[in-house]
Amino acid sequence: MAGLSAGLYPLIYLYTSNHTLITSWYQFLFLILGFIGLPIMSFLGLCFVSKQIGIIRKYHLQIFSFLNVSVFAGLLVYSTYGFKKKILLVVCLIAFALTFVLFKYIKRVIQLQFILALVGLIFLVPTLYRYFSYDDKWLSQPDKIEAVKFKKKPNIYLIQPDGYVGLSELPRGNYSQDNSDFSKFLSENNFKVYPNFRSNYFSTLSSNSSMFAMKHHYYNGTANINKELLYARDVIVSENPVLSIFKTNGYATSLILEKPYLLANRPKLGYDYCNISYDDLPIIIKDVGFKRDVNSALETAIKSNRKENNFYFVERIIPGHISTWKSSSEGKDLEREKYLNRLKEANLWLKGTISLINKYDSDALIIIAADHGGFVGYDYSTQSSEKPKNRDNTFSMFSSLLAIKWPENPNQYDKDLKTSVNLFRTLFTYLSEDKSLLRNLQDDRSYLAVDKNAPLGIYVVIDENDNAVFKTLESSEK
């Protein structure tokens, strides 16, 4: 029982606080073994050894108590911070010191651990309900776009600089930054810029899942800005209408990532190639310190894929957004300065990437599309759970870079391209020359989950005419 009690609450806590990062069966089996199986076997082993060795038998209660407390605390640390050697060492030292007091009350300690597990299970139930009630019907298309046939088949590159705000927003409002040098570069390289483009959702997962689904998900009805969207990673990298359409039209697909953020829950890969292997990743990814050189991986992939049509999704976490949490923020002014410095780095990377593609694939269709804005104007990005105070803060979240190098003039297809949810439908209309696909464009509103300074709910914060508004999702449908 002591082995079970030591691991049960940390396991429940881990799933309650990180459930979107550990949805695969591989992770589940590993965690059951690590949090439940190994502690139980350790205590059974201790019981066996204590019967064989006198000194262990004499102090078995103290050893038993130390093992229980250290395993319990160590697994809690792992659940919260990941594998941190220094923190775990401190925990073991504290557990050793407490042993001399707690061994007299070990039965009560075990009872307390089971009570914590029961309370934790109560909090886990709503999360389990959300998973079991999840419905992927929102991915269904309103027409036969998944059977579309391309008349043009250029190689297609989707380059995503995370958090790169739209070019119309940079010189104004919270950013006030001259970015004319990069705009000139885009023009010289035959990119069409969509200066007022924006995302429909505020985060990488919520925005990209909608973009690759070509549909709105409305956060699956969950108005909690601090909870990741259910199965978002699976939609982005496993199965989605966009990948299905590319494969139906004979395209090989490649996913090239700087960091494994999109792979954290080990979704089944729907891409033919990914530059990051699950063998190189920990079971639970608590941070994104792991990095890959995306341009090196992209160049290798281009050289290897010369005989077929290709779709590449290249993502780099740059310029990113301001600090996520209040505890790590340096205040809105310094956060702005740091963001703009990263923006300069992003410009250099994008220039190099475009030059690399042009070197090997001068006739390619290249899309530079950010997932959301940089949140400049806030002290930290999770402040976005508050009702937006002004127009500039709203657009700082949703305004995002879009520039496309079209091999041929797209004007008869892209005049209504305003938001990320309609990006691929517009692209497929261009490739198929089938304008009927444009009859089912999704609405161009931007949505935000809000839980402060307004009733908890999902709100429309930018309407289809690019006005900053604040309306509940329900009222906006009337």
From TrEMBL:
Transmembrane listed as a keyword: yes
Q: Which InterPro entries does the annotation name?
A: Alkaline_phosphatase_core_sf
Residue stretches spanning the membrane = 25-49, 61-81, 87-106, 113-132
- Keyword rRNA processing included in the entry's annotation: no
Which UniProt key words apply to this protein?
Answer: Membrane, Transmembrane, Transmembrane helix
Q: Which SUPFAM superfamilies match?
A: Alkaline phosphatase-like
In Swiss-Prot or TrEMBL terms, this protein is called Sulfatase N-terminal domain-containing protein
